[in-house]
Amino acid sequence: MKKALVCGAGGFIGGHLVNRLKQEGYWVRGVDVKENEYGNNASDEFILGDLRDPAFTISVVKDVDEVYQLAADMGGAGYIFTGNHDADVMHNSAMCNLNVLEAMRVNNVKKVFYSSSACIYPEHNQLDPDNPNCEEASAYPAAPDSEYGWEKLFSERLYFSYARNYGFEVKVARFHNIFGPQGTWKGGKEKSPAALCRKAAEAENGTSIEVWGDGVQTRSFLYIDECLDGVRKLMQSEFAGPVNIGSEEMISINDFAKMAIEISGKKLSIHNIPGPTGVRGRRSDNKLIFEKLGWAPSMPLKQGMEKTFQWINQQVTKELVAK
Fold first, then answer.
1. Average pLDDT over residues 67-88
2. CATH number at residue 276
3. Residues known to be catalytic
């Protein structure tokens, strides 16, 4: 039986990844500074602790065949793009990555997956909402639009440095807006799919929901199950990356809000307000991952949003009942 360590198992993607590995027959140790918020934790062993602590990290990054490093200080646009959390984002995430890699070296664990982000791509390639360029090779010359993106780009280089110097087998994927049930849906760290589903679920018929910016900015979004398919294909391949894992189905945020409203079955309007928006356009470029791994997503965005809305609507209803 293969053994895996999932760092960040208390988070949205980490919790789903633990489940996926268990389904494939792995023994899984989960590690996070917090319990999984929605009980999405099927790990054989879950250890609460802080990966910013070198001694703790050495104690948990051992006796496994594979490490999946998803632990990071992150959130949606309201957390990443205001600038208010830049020092924490860079310090906390960099410390996790530095400690995990050094713990792997000390404990002679060689294979690791690192979750990077589409936020590493240069802002100047994403000014046109209709024609963003997120081809993997476009990452340099580097000019990410946030400190979160800069830290992710630094950490990509850090992982590949350990691969060169210590013989690690490193796999790096750049995630593009992964969404689905059992993730953060309120409180300021939620991403736009969850935020729009929550707003539509909470709104009374005949009212409006708020959308940050003019709503013309575009994005692509990938449902969690498809993301994990891409991660597992990458880990089972000879290809190291970095490679995009995302969808090429691009949508404006206003149209995305309209989709959430349609799914809710309510009559709601959109009220655009000032707010952090990030780049004007972003869409995964999947040429490389299809060439190297034969992977491409198959689920339409609306189908994933229907699943996500159903779950978030249940959470909103539970809160109303509790009041």
1. 84
2. 3.90.25.10
3. 148
